[in-house]
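Q: Here's a chain of 80 amino acids. Please give me its 3D structure as tokens.
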Amino acid sequence: MCFGASMMAGLGRIVFAYEDVMGGGTGCKRQSLPELYKESDSKVIPGVLRAESLALFKTFFSNPAKTYWKGSLLARYVLQ
């Protein structure tokens, strides 16, 4: 929903650090989307500061006191 809203708002550039293994619009092929989204000029720039983002995720999911999303697909993906 955030990706679609960003495109509809006319944001020229969408920059993110870490891919969304659980889904997320940035991995969608625009040609398969409805016309409203296909016509967007938004550029998607992935992987900006990815290593730093991954380090933060690893620190979070490695902390036994942090039980939020423990064992989730995201946690498993980050820690592998």
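Q: Can you summarize the key feature?
A: Residues 8 and 36 are 8 Å apart (CA to CA).
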